[in-house]
Amino acid sequence: MVLEKMSDFFADRADTYDEHMLKNVEGCKNGYLEMAKLLPSATSKLLDLGCGTGLELGKIFELYPSISVTGIDLSETMTRKLKEKYSGRDITIINGSYLGYDFGFDLYDAAISFQTMHHLSHSEKISVYSEVCKSLKSGGTYIECDYMVTDKAEEDFLYAENSRVRKEQNIPDGEFYHFDTPCTIENQVSMLLQAGFASAEFVWREGNTTIIISKK
Length: 216
What we know:
Blueprint: H1 6-11, H2 17-24, H3 28-38, E1 45-49, H4 57-63, E2 68-73, H5 76-85, E3 90-95, E4 108-114, H6 122-135, E5 136-147, H7 152-168, H8 185-194, E6 199-206, E7 209-215
Parallel strand pairs: 1-2, 1-4, 2-3, 4-5
Antiparallel strand pairs: 5-7, 6-7
């Protein structure tokens, strides 16, 4: 296994990404629909982390055509496709990493992420969650749909494998390379609470595709 830089990994797969997620990743097709249905009806300003090609926005725009979205993603190739899909919608795109990004304070009614957080370490997740929590208005909602596992031993194994492979390939700390490191549902809930959310609740799962809703 040769690890690829995260931005290169997704840029190289931009043309096939939508089909892959909808057909090959169990739970994603229904996960996009569930996420949209779970979004609070009063949402007018939405933050989308790791927005990619915007698959998660299709049903959201169908339900809330006037919603204002700010999306952030590393891959300009992916976000270019997002813009093509949703031409005319109220979308602001930030091409860059959400790691260490200041999303502002008290700006958004809700935030979402879909199949992106399983690439981060525990400390990175808590840091991102903290920034997301700060960016939400009082009572705001964060909905995460992600690859999660039920067995802590599986989580530990994958994190150890990531560390081993990175060391073998002399990848410096802090460099963002693609490797899936899903956490257990319990750990995800715990990290969200550590980051400052008042509540975090597991609400839906199909295969390993899992949704947690957090409230500020």
